[in-house]
Automatic annotation (TrEMBL):
Family, as annotated: Belongs to the 5'(3')-deoxyribonucleotidase family.
Identification of the protein by name: 5'-nucleotidase domain-containing protein 3
GO molecular-function term, one example from the UniProt record: metal ion binding
Keywords of the record: Hydrolase, Magnesium, Metal-binding
Database matches in InterPro entries: HAD-like_sf (IPR036412), HAD-SF_hydro_IG_5-nucl (IPR008380), HAD_sf (IPR023214)
Bilayer-crossing regions: none
Keyword DNA repair belongs to the record: no
Matches recorded under Pfam families: 5_nucleotid (PF05761)
Gene3D superfamilies per UniProt: HAD superfamily/HAD-like
């Protein structure tokens, strides 16, 4: 989004620029803000402004713990940042819910490398001692580490793990491909996508577009002058409907899940690395813990639509 604002400024002021330079500078600045800790300090100083407090999150986590499920948290953030955020979201006793808490994990390298080892942290999130970690205690925060050591200390079975992450590559790709974990993606933008999909205007636009494309497909080889004129008007109307449906989600970028009829690159990667996706973890709160989600059948170009 930062790149977009800079490009918009350059375009309005008619300033010449190299797109790759803008991308590199903005990317470097965002990375520096994260790594320097400035972003975290601002969020910790005013969590109410930056963090949405989900009213059902604590209840859902307590439901899992009461049922005997083991919870773990793997974050690239510092222990202090995690503690401040979780106190705001869940309460002072948030650590009691988690069997394993890992800070500064350095994902995705956490899943790929085995050299880094866990370190003890005190209750304030500061480095405690040089003694190696030989066991993981409930409610304690451990720094760094790697997936190989985590599995070695917990003896968890990959077939019994459901792992939620909000980044397709940093969180989900490696544990899905290399470890066989069941993965779920958290995508906050999904709520807006669903809202738009259920509006009457969008449904009318999509239905009209579908019928119009069927007409164009069936009569595209008509040769009369009247038919050719009608086809051209259909094509123009189709283009207008396509643009209108895309702008329903975002007037600049469209949907993050589709590019017109086709799945977006993000959507294809999501299907590859996540078994389930949702806007927030607590959406599962009202489901029984033994509930099974069955995926919808995805149509292929050669298949009839009788089952849709």
């Amino acid at each position: 989004m930062s790149c977009f604002f800079f490009v918009q400024l350059f375009e309005r002021q008619k300033i010449k620029y190299q797109p790759i330079n803008v991308y590199q500078d903005v990317s470097s600045s965002v990375s520096r803000v994260h790594k320097s800790g400035l972003l975290g300090l601002n969020i910790m100083a005013n969590p109410e402004r930056h963090i949405y407090r989900d009213p059902h999150l604590a209840a859902f986590l307590n439901k899992l713990v009461t049922d005997g499920r083991k919870l773990f948290l793997i974050s690239n953030s510092s222990a202090a940042f995690i503690d401040r955020g979780m106190r705001f979201l869940i309460g002072e006793d948030w650590r009691e819910l988690f069997d394993v808490i890992i800070s500064r994990a350095n994902k995705p390298l956490f899943f790929q490398q085995s050299a880094n080892q866990f370190r003890h942290m005190d209750d304030r999130g500061h480095f405690k001692d040089w003694e190696g970690v030989r066991s993981l205690s409930r409610g304690h925060i451990y720094d760094g580490g790697c997936l190989e050591q985590l599995i070695s200390l917990t003896h968890w079975n990959a077939q019994h793990i459901l792992y939620f992450g909000d980044h397709v590559y940093s969180d989900l790709a490696d544990v899905s491909n290399l470890q066989g974990w069941t993965t779920a993606a958290v995508i906050p933008e999904l709520e807006h996508e669903i809202m738009v999909n259920n509006t009457l205007d969008f449904r009318r636009c999509s239905t009209k577009l579908r019928h119009l494309e069927e007409l164009i497909n069936n009569y595209q080889h008509a040769s009369s002058t009247e038919a050719r004129t009608l086809l051209r008007s259909w094509q123009l109307e189709r283009n207008e409907l396509r643009v209108s449906s895309k702008r329903s989600f975002n007037k600049y970028f469209g949907s993050i899940f589709r590019s017109f009829h086709n799945p977006s690159y993000f959507s294809r990667r999501l299907a590859q690395y996540a078994v389930l996706y949702t806007s927030k973890v607590s959406n599962l709160y009202r489901y029984p813990l033994d509930h099974t989600f069955y995926p919808k059948r995805t149509g292929l170009p050669h298949e009839a639509a009788w089952w849709q």
